[in-house]
Amino acid sequence: xxxxxxxxxxxxxxxxxxxxxxxxxxxxxxxxxxxxxxxxxxxxxxxxxxxxxxxxxxxxxxxxxxxxxxxxxxxxxxxxxxxxxxxxxxxxxxxxxxxxxxxxxxxxxxxxxxxxxxxxxxxxxxxxxxxxxxxxxxxxxxxxxxxxxxxxxxxxxxxxxxxxxxxxxxxxxxxxxxxxxxxxxxxxxxx
Length: 191
Description:
By secondary structure, the protein is mostly helical. The protein has nine helices and two strands; from the N terminus they run H-H-H-H-H-H-H-H-E-H-E. The chain has helices at 3-13, 18-25, 29-36, 44-53, 68-80, 84-100, 103-110, 120-136, 174-177; strands at residues 156-157, 181-182. It has a two-stranded parallel sheet with strand order 1-2. Helix 1 (3-13) crosses helix 3 (29-36), helix 2 packs across helix 3 (29-36) and helix 5 (68-80) runs antiparallel to helix 8 (120-136).
């Protein structure tokens, strides 16, 4: 995870504009912008100070696998390149990371609210798969999972391949059904 991804996720999680975060951190808005765009790599102390101004902390924890924040950013890039098939593999990799983690690891990987992927269905799918694995571990859920914007208005399958078949709703986990995103539960089994 880069400083850019961490800072942007923290700022958006708190609903702050760059100017407000910069004011709170005692730095220039241009500095926040440069960090978020990846044009400046801050020191650990600087990043921690700015994150604290957004109500977050920089910590190191022993986990393996991609976070929800990283996954959403990668999926957004892959979708922008027209590579829904790659986005789907990234989605499955995140699911596998959650599945392979203990309950604490699952909470850590999903603690920060991911930015939008630019596609409501993928945003709903990320929230659903996170909730699916947290529920399986009886683990607590982050506030971002309660955000209704990560739910589709009507049921639809995740569009990742030209010939993808819509699953039978009886085969879709409740965490996905509640968000109106149709993904067959067998898809979540690691291969």
